[in-house]
Amino acid sequence: MPNITRAATVSGVVAVLLVAAGCGGGSSFDDKAGSDSKQKEGKASLEMLIASSGDAETKFVTDTANAWAEETGNTVKVVVAQDLTQQLSQGFAGGNPPDVFYVDASRVADLAKAGSLEPYADQVADNDDFYESLRQTFTYDGQQICVPKDFSTLALEIRADSWKAAGLTDADVPTTWDDLAAVAKKLTTGKQTGLVIGDTRDRIGAFMVQNGGWVFNEDSTEVTADTPENAEALAYVKAQLAAGTFKYPGEVDAGWGGEAFGTGKAAMTIEGNWIRGAMKNDYPDVEYSVHELPEGSAGKGTLLFTQCYGIAAASEFKEQSVSLVEALTSEEAQLAAADAFGVIPSRQSAKDGYVAKFPDDAPFVAGADYGQGPVNAAGMDSVLADFDAGLQQLKQQAPDKILGTLQSNAESALQQ
Amino acid sequence: MSATNSGTAPLAVPTATPSGAVPSTTPPRGRQSGRDRGQGVAGWLFVSPAITILVLFLLLPILMALWVSLTAWDGQGSPFSKDVGFVGGKNYQRLFLEDGLVRRDFMTSLRNTAFFVGFVVPTQTALALFLALVLNQKLRGRGFFRTAFYFPSVTSSVAISLVFLFLFTGSGAINATLGIFGIDGPVWFTDARGLIHAVGDGIGIWNTDAPPGALADNSIGGLTLWEWISGPSVAMCAIIFLVVWTTAGTFMLLFLAALQDLPREIEEAALIDGTSRWQRFRFVTLPQIKPTVFLVITLGLIGTWQVFDQIYIMSQGAPAKTTLTPAFLSYLYSFRQNEWGLGAAMAFILFAIIVILTSLQRFVMRDKDAIRDERAARAASRRRAQVATTDQRPGGGNR
């Protein structure tokens, strides 16, 4: 009789353990998803995970992918992610990532370090046709991992009405830091600030680049944050902030530079080509012009933002995935994408076609030749977030101190 | 298997014998215990689905997370594969002992949350109790007010957070209202000034631009004392308002239920004794609802230390990391930076903090009368037992 209780509890416990073991026992759970998996024979059924800017982009990707599938006899399922970073993380952790997906330039190093990305760039036809600066952005450990989807750069936007009201002409468009400071001062009147600039490295960093500085050296092997070039750049911005001719969006109660610009709280702002869509939707009546950023002591400089098409190292259909990426990044496809949702092609061969169609965007496109991509070293997310927190306090803190903290944090992160 | 077996078998016994049974009245063992065992099996069978679910979805994930917190898992593949580096206490060490960004971030988040909890828990408990007391009166339209106060609790926190974002913008309703009284409100969500810093500056204890050396030069855990005492930032204050406003309704309901359960006679007796309103509240009502107060404070502590969704939606740690919380930081390190071990370690420290604070609070709020009674009873039974043994009578009966 006493055995009944025991038997019941034992069987209950065994059942629980079996179920748990069932969860943990799958082959995928034991394998490391980062490790390479073999090419599988036969027709491929690919899964593609994207973060879409809207219906136009979703339609473009789906149509292009379907056309490719029909031509090659494979199948593709395009999934639009709600939160790409998180869904990708879950895919990698579960050992079942999508075959093709968008990867932001700032995430490539982390994923490449973990071995989740297939370095396929050399298999893509005309890889050299992509802008050199973009390819550099997707290079980790001396190897180009993936090919760029499209890109954005920062440029200077100027409101036509404020410009005119201050008595400025086309000849006054700033080409140096001193020019910029001078016109910003002229344009600061009443409730209008000369220049509203985002309080992150993704905007202020452009000044560091113009002055010949950056957080890392060219191949991201060495931290170069606490250099005099960087300090000078931050000191310049700090001086303008103190004078009130530059302001952060928060100070003028705006969410970002584009909002301050559209509402007239700012006469100028520094944003990327995404500002086009925002202006068209929210402030269709505002007339403005776009110019290349003024030069610093080291010449022209801007920041690049880009994404690439990542292919999972765990994918069983890598050949087909590369073929799909080729279809998505062909010259025609890129021009079609530019038409559909206003992104700049990442292929140099598409440059002329794009500029012919969108002459106003020439300053953005020009940035590709001298732009600096995001930091592409692994484990830098928290370090750069800390740098941003420092930049938010730039008015109160010394540039040396902010850069010194960045230097030591980045160095220790690089050693991890 | 034997270990599990011997571990669970004794558990079955208390279920089989009703705990209230008085030993001296227990009938002869044989038949009864057989039936008891039958009931035990049935009991275990009935609870087994619940236990299965608990083990599968609660206990196992917790143990898995504990394992992850001891590894350098980068989020690729299984955390139990051979390639995952076991690092022992390294992650915990980085959080507490190694000077660097990780420790500074974590300490900042602990500071922020400590101030957050310190402001939210007392305020929401007091407000909830006050609302419950008011709505326990015979008021006209009290049904309406009960619904109204409870409403924020049933609304999605995302929706409320978005509404508060609009209310607290620089040109929003809050600043417009302050403007009526001639107060120039801050730009709430970009203002990183600490409340205690600002107040101290205002009344002249210190100057925030040149903090006193004793505070600025000494540091604990990578943050200077000056940084530790900053108080919640202006941005955090907006989130404090929000949380107090949303949770006070829930806890009001708990207090209301407790108040309505109180026997009328005791209050009447107090009335006859000629007590004042305050005395009746302080010495009659409050002691009676003490268990509810304990519950509310405990739930408040747990909920506030884990604050995540409001931070995720409203500020993401900005401005200048003054709204960073351990839960959000754990998310950042895990999902954004693939340092899952570090994220899991933060989660376990958060867990430890909550357990410690709750036990501490349990200790402080323990029922002193009950402890005295129990002690007296135990002493009495000991005395009785002594008498019994000297009398050579078998079976004292009391434990």
Task: Explain what you see.
By secondary structure, chain A is of the alpha/beta class. Chain A folds into two domains: 45-152 and 305-372, Periplasmic binding protein-like II (D-Maltodextrin-Binding Protein, domain 2), CATH 3.40.190; 153-303 and 376-415, D-Maltodextrin-Binding Protein, domain 2 (3-Layer(aba) Sandwich). Chain A has 18 helices and 13 strands. In chain A, the strands form two sheets. In chain A, strands 1, 2, 3, 6, 7, 8, 9, 10, 11, 12 and 13 form an eleven-stranded mixed sheet that branches. Chain A has a two-stranded antiparallel ribbon with strand order 4-5. Chain A is globular and about 70 Å long. With 399 residues, chain B is mainly α. In chain B, 69% of the residues lie in helices and 1% in strands. Chain B has a two-stranded antiparallel ribbon with strand order 1-2. The longest helix of chain B has 40 residues, at 29-68. Chain B is globular, with a radius of gyration of 28 Å. The model of chain B is unreliable at 1-27 and 394-399 (pLDDT under 50). At the A-B interface, helix 1, helix 4, helix 17 and helix 18 of A face helix 1, helix 2, helix 4 and helix 16 of B.
Whole-number mean pLDDT of chain A: 86
DSSP summary, beta strand count of chain B: 2
Q: What share of residues are in beta strands of chain B? A: under 5%
CATH homologous superfamily heading of the domain at 109-194 and 231-371 in chain B: MetI-like
| Termini separation of chain B | 34 Å
Task: Give the number of helices of chain A.
Answer: 18
Q: What is the CATH class designation of the largest domain in chain A?
A: Alpha Beta
Unreliable segments of 5+ consecutive residues of chain A: 12-34
Helical proportion of chain B? 55-70%
**Which chains make the largest contact?**
A-B, 51 and 52 residues
| Superfamily (CATH H level) name of the largest domain in chain A | Periplasmic binding protein-like II
Succession of helices and strands of chain B: HHHHHHHHHEEHHHHHHHHH
Biggest sheet descriptor of chain A = 11 strands, mixed
**End-to-end CA span of chain A:** 60 Å
